[in-house]
């Protein structure tokens, strides 16, 4: 890359870095402002919904004390305390109105009847004269009050109404509404909620640790009254751990941002409550961070595209320059390659010619090896032919004499014997085809019966075996055992192995050759072993090398050709020293099953 291109790349990088920084800053502030407004709307909706739900639920019980106070039976129980049935009546009313507890006070504030009379924390006999809702009701007003139950230790909203006897107040009826279930239904999905009383003390919240904490300073006299009335127990409320409203004197709705939260403070409702919904800044910041990450990814992608486009332009200019230089080099190289191609074609032609000559030479060597073996066996073959020929002459001369004597039956007998002798000579000559036929395996499938092939090979060598005094033992070979090989070439290999063994056993009194058979699932083996002197272990590895021989008159091609013949049919020929002495040759061939043999070509 040239110096100009590098400088251009650095300038592009600095420009995109500056542009990305400005874009990220704008994106961050825009997303932050958007999320702040979005959460303000969400928190307001949460607060409005909670306010409406809270007011709606409490409104169901607001008029119940006033209605019950006009029931004349209550006056009877107030004026005649010994009357029975008050608790049962209050329990029935509590069940019908779904109120938590309904109870009746006398003028002194003592509870003389309660709907929870059967519970362990019953209000019957309790003195609630210090409770503001009783005091206000005794003054002739409909009272409402939120507090923690002294006996039940459960938060409740209390409605009280006076019971008039002529122009005097004879007692007070109180309805307690449970706030536990209502609290669970007020909690929003993605924010927190607090409901404040008139002193800004949290009496409802989905966060248990926030309950009974103050969000603003409380006047000492109010604290004293709260402790005296046991509104939230015997202790004064503590400050909220993370939210402080300062001076929330303004009863209107307010949006505020705290160090850890963004909150919405609703306006004071008819019950004197205010609802606070708040969300941690972490939620808003996560969304802003997502927007920042998306901007960075998109900007990075666009930067890569722009950089790639710029690099493409630079590369095109450099490519045009290199193309001119390349065209000149290509022209020069083309001329050189053209000359090399011509030389290569000539080399290939010469190689093919050499391969053809090599193949022809191999075939000629194979045939030469056959003829050499034929020469060695000629004496034995002459003997096999001369004996039948001499017999033919004798039968012919006898037949002529018998004909002159008109002994035709004897002449016919002689002629039959002559035919048998002729067939014997034909069989001997047919076996000689092994040594004259030039056969190379092609891709066809062949069929050779191992039993017949071993028999044919031993027949040819029978005379030589007798003359050399070597004993031949052939183990039982299944008559149906067949292999995929041309039967003439299999016989050629067997003749070569047996003939080599005969030569190795020359001059040995107890010479013995053993032919055995082994059968595997997909293969079959013929093992030819002898008890001759064997060869040195160091020469064993070279036994199948061309022109390697241990005989002065040998060509050293017999085993080489035999191995190649067997391997051409996907078989194998291996040699090893036979214990305690001698040689052992193992011939392996693909086995043909009876079902396969019927489809093979028999040659």
UniProtKB/TrEMBL annotation:
Gene3D superfamilies: 1.10.287.130, Histidine kinase-like ATPase, C-terminal domain (3.30.565.10), PAS domain (3.30.450.20). SUPFAM superfamilies: ATPase domain of HSP90 chaperone/DNA topoisomerase II/histidine kinase, Homodimeric domain of signal transducing histidine kinase, Sensory domain-like. InterPro entries: dCache_1, HATPase_C_sf, HATPase_dom, His_kinase_dom, HisK_dim/P_dom, HisK_dim/P_sf, Sensor-like_sf, Sig_transdc_His_kin-like_C. Its main location: membrane. The keyword Nucleotide-binding applies. It is found in: Cell inner membrane; Cell membrane. It catalyses: ATP + protein L-histidine = ADP + protein N-phospho-L-histidine. It is a multi-pass membrane protein. The chain crosses the membrane at residues 12-31, 288-309. Residues 380-593 form the Histidine kinase domain. One of its GO terms (molecular function) is ATP binding. It is an enzyme of class 2 (transferase). This is histidine kinase. It comes from Vibrio vulnificus.
